[in-house]
Amino acid sequence: MAESTLEQLCTIYTDLSADDIQQLKSVASTLQMYADLSDAYMFIDCKMKDNEQAIVVAEAFPKSINAVYENSVIGKIVFDSFEPGVFYSYRKGKKSLIRQAVTQEGRSVEQSVVPIKNNMHQVIAVLIQEKEVYHAMPYTNNLEDLPFGQESIGYVLGDKNSEMPIVSDLLMEIFLLTDHENKLTYANPVGVKFITEMSHTEEIQNVNLVELLPFLKPVYDQQDDVFVSELTLDRKNLVVKKIRLRKKDEMRGTLLVIQDLTELRTKEKELMMKSVVIQEIHHRVKNNLQTVASLLRLQMRKGISEESKSYFEDTLNRVFSISSVYELILANEDAEDDDVDIIELTKKVCSTMTINGPNKKVGLIIRSNGNRILTSSRKAVSIALIVNELVQNSLKHAFPGDTRGEIIVNFYSKADSLELHISDNGVGIKQTKSSLGLEIVRNLVVNDLNGEFSYMPEDIGTHAAIMFPVSPEVIIYYEKENIDS
Q1: CA dist., res. 453 & res. 69, Å (int)
Q2: CATH code linked to domain 3-145
Q3: Nearest Cα to 473, choosing from 440, 443, 450?
Q4: Which of these, 460, 354, 351, 362, lies nearest to 404 by C-alpha position?
Q5: Do 215 and 229 contact (CB within 8 A), yes or no?
Q6: What is the rounded distance in angstroms from the CA atom of residue 466 to the CA atom of residue 411?
Q7: The pTM is what?
Q8: How many whole angstroms separate alpha carbon 144 and alpha carbon 146?
Q9: pLDDT digits over 243-261, tens only?
Q10: CATH 2.60.20.10 assigned to 162-260
Q11: Three-class DSSP category at 428
């Protein structure tokens, strides 16, 4: 295998950098030595850039008479369903060992896979070693190395006569077996039903399967002994897995496993439509809130009393707080995800209030304490309104005139609860007075968050604390452990 072939395949089919490709060329140069030393087949596989499959970019075969691979597999596509060890090592960055895997030639091999990492510790490829598995199992003291229940599984699979149905009879997948002339020699009950429905005939045994189901011709014409294809026909979505059964150079037959994904694809389309509808609802809610805000601003410009002005401003801030929730949802790339990042929401709500507030000398500090907190849109609306009311109170009453000061918003997390603390270093309050804003906070904390709200005593300023339990609607990612609150 020329190094130029590896470089060409990696350049065309992968996103690897020039340095990564150079590293793979270095590894590939040693494959033949290790193949001869271990009497095993060596391969390098790389993930493809446009799909979830991999491609073989390098190989080395040992000088053996009884070859497992008759032909080169350079440039062959590798599927997850047939090579789980390859994709496990890619995802986990760890070694994998498969005691019995199926090669492109339909032979059973023992497969060891190790990841190849670059200088940034990123997995750029996997190195594979394969040895043929013989039916006679060697003696070993390690019980984990041995399969068990061979007699029982043979009994269930139908190796012995019994009244028990074989496994393929109980599965929803279609199992079809054809001989070397592509004549149907076995079909499980689901397969029989499928063929009779699609071919409109009940005479199917020992009939050429391609004549019965012409849409399978491209699958049979495909030269690869192991092949996966997705077909769409007559409103059906099918995944066809083909394995040619060989003994040395002799082709014994072909096994087809067909999955009917029609119902699954229909459900996916329904979910997609629901997702689009939900997104459209979010858009409309956001637009309606902006319309309400525009009407309030228009009324304020038309002229209102000084006494009423503060009420209008408070209402505008509340509308904006709710609107911020939907803006963050719509900014989410995942259309089905309506979770809201509380930290980002708090920043959005507070920044506008401090910028538009009368006192420009008040600083705002928001601390997440190293945690990322997500919650449902319903709870996010409640939290946005709570933050709005409490920060707005501090801006209005804690810093008279042009007094300098700070407002600090703190999020603390525990194993089973979340705490929100909003404090300032302003003039403080001797006694809390009933107001619409505080009534909104109390109702939201108790009824929506099932939590507790209180003012904590401080020598300087005001300190409001909200505590509510963690629930399935609240997800905390502990980027940094936080204990004290």
Answers
A1: 71
A2: 3.30.450.280
A3: 450
A4: 362
A5: no
A6: 10
A7: 0.48
A8: 6
A9: 888 776 677 888 899 888 8
A10: no
A11: coil
